Amino acid sequence: MGDHRFGFDTLCLHAGQIPDAATGARALPIYQTTSFVFDSADHAASLFNLQTFGNVYSRISNPTVAALEERVAALEGGRAALAAATGMAAQMLALLTLCRHGDHIVAARTLYGGTYSQLATTFDQFGIEVTFVDADDASAFKNALKPRTKALYAETIGNPQLNVCDIAALSAVARDAGVPLVIDNTMASPFLCRPFEHGADIVVHSVTKYLGGHGTTMGGIVVESGKFPWDNGNFPQMTEPSRGYHGVRFYETFGDFGFTMKARMETMRTLGPTLAPLSAFLLLQGIETLHLRMPRHSASALAIAQHLAAHPAVEWVNYPLLSGNRYEELARRYLPHGAGGILTFGVRGGAAAGVRFIEAVEFLSHLANIGDAKTLVIHPASTTHRQLSEDEQLAAGVTPEMIRLSVGLETQDDILWDLDQALEKSQR
Amino acid sequence: MGRVDDIAGLRRILTQSRVIAVVGLSPNWYRPSFFAAKYMQEHGYRAIPVNPNAEEILGEKCYPDVAAIPGAVDIVDCFRKPEEMPDLARAAVAKGAKVFWMQLGITSDEAAKIALAGGLEVVQNRCVKIEHARLMGGLHWVGVNTGIVSARRT
């Protein structure tokens, strides 16, 4: 007798939350508490020894946050998850659970700028070395491996270059090397791509973006597949007695959720970038409609990309599923239900025209975020990347005329109307 | 009855059982078997250690084998190597246990057949503690995907 397998849409609404046992509340209660009382001194001892599961202090776990963790774990088809205050914190927790001083990571060169800075600057201060390689070339990842490489790191869809990752190819390299493939799945969300199905071992998200979906709340999450063989000799911190947790061997004791337990009980407990319970509640409200929002974001983005491609004031359009895009084949393989809501395009007339366009939009919001229900627009050269020289901007995939659009859920004709009138003004 | 691997069946076994013979229970507090037995004790079960090399574990007298345990046993829970499973299945049948449970990482089709032929239910490759925490609360709090979708107030 097998258990019924629930569909993705049902999991968006139900996974991780059964009605509250004490009150019967159907919506998720917000456990706005720092701490939880112990039943007895012995119960407290068992909790601190990890011999029983329960809540001690909300830096480590909280029932409202747990509902978000289990829901995203279920949506990704993973075994367990750990939420964090932001996406940046989530990827840090994942990588600092894998790496220590002297270890090495191979990462895609096209990573989101914030991630690039974290790895290139902050991890460098920790003595963790990162080699950045061509995201499109699995052999470049392979050639960059070192004896102390502990992870491969890439994004399902890069931002802002919108390059689509060949996850299976990177997974093969990671498998041969005996290290996990960590994939940032923020831009796709688990509705469009589930990296575990293609061989990834750990998935991270900025939940702030499409999962939360409404631009209200910061959050991040780490999900583990439960399939990585942590006893392969490369991860003694998973198999040897833990110094940080009085001798527990995380893989032996917790098996296929041992990585998440270690990330929670050692990395999160000691660094502390915890997600607030109220934030978890707000993010979960967003996730309840993920399966309705993502098809609309994707369909509108494709229609807008096609419209812009035929527009006289537009030099070029980049959207993975646009016919002729260099990532079209990979997008059809990894993103069969849509490529998400982000697209970029070049306004004819260079940086000055880009600025005129941005200043002319009426209801498209000029701000530095993606994955909101509302349409967002930004001119990277004059904002997010303005500290860089033009050469550095080009290396990051940012050209002077580039506009990034995060297509929202408004009436599609209205978005097109605003784009058209702003493009017209950009050419004056 | 038979081989049990679904939520309803596992929940029924854990609800109906009270006495667990833990074969291979280690006296070392950081070993998985000790974690599991201590957890089950704290959740109202009696965990009887089967370990010929120890006197007493978790306040319970140790027995050298399943047959030596006085009184009835509901679950024979095995933390031993797969090749020992067929003999342990025979011991569980002889003891009149109701469930033969092989821990996470342990499977034995031969042992399963022996136990089934003896009228026992069989669970394999699952941890009794993790399943209890998954189905009756606790595991959810550490972010594990329990697989439970329900609108019942538990």
Care to describe what's here?
The complex is a heterodimer of chains A (428) and B (154). Chain A is an alpha/beta fold and 428 residues long. The radius of gyration of chain A is 22 Å and the shape is globular. In chain A, strands 1-7-6-5-4-2-3 form a seven-stranded mixed β-sheet, sandwiched between helices. In chain A, strands 8-9-12-11-10 form a five-stranded mixed β-sheet. Helices cover 39% and strands 13% of the residues of chain A. The two termini of chain B are 24 Å apart. In chain B, 32% of the residues lie in helices and 16% in strands. In chain B, α1 (7-16) crosses α5 (128-136), α2 packs across α5 and α3 (85-95) packs parallel to α4. Chain B has one domain: 3-Layer(aba) Sandwich (Rossmann fold), CATH 3.40.50.720. Classes of the chains: A alpha/beta (428), B alpha/beta (154).
Keyword list:
heterodimer, A: 428 residues, alpha/beta, Aspartate Aminotransferase, domain 2, Aspartate Aminotransferase, domain 1, 12 strands, globular, B: 154 residues, Rossmann fold, five-stranded parallel sheet, 7 strands, 16% strand
Q: Count of helical segments of chain B?
A: 5
User: What does the oligomeric state look like here?
Assistant: heterodimer
The number of E-state strands of chain A comes to 12
Strand content of chain A: 5-15%
Topology record:
The complex is a heterodimer of chains A (428) and B (154).
Chain A: H1 8-14, H2 41-48, H3 63-76, E1 80-84, H4 87-98, E2 104-108, H5 113-125, E3 129-133, H6 138-143, E4 149-155, H7 167-177, E5 181-184, H8 189-192, E6 202-206, E7 220-224, H9 236-239, H10 250-254, H11 258-271, H12 277-287, H13 290-309, E8 314-318, H14 328-334, E9 342-347, H15 350-360, E10 365-366, E11 376-378, H16 390-395, E12 402-406, H17 412-426
Parallel strand pairs in A: 2-3, 2-4, 4-5, 5-6, 10-11
Antiparallel strand pairs in A: 1-7, 6-7, 8-9, 9-12, 11-12
Helix pairs in contact in A: 1-3, 3-12, 4-11, 15-17
Chain B: H1 7-16, E1 19-23, H2 32-42, E2 46-50, E3 56-57, E4 60-61, E5 75-78, H3 85-95, E6 99-102, H4 109-117, E7 121-123, H5 128-136
Parallel strand pairs in B: 1-2, 1-5, 5-6, 6-7
Antiparallel strand pairs in B: 3-4
Helix pairs in contact in B: 1-5, 2-5, 3-4
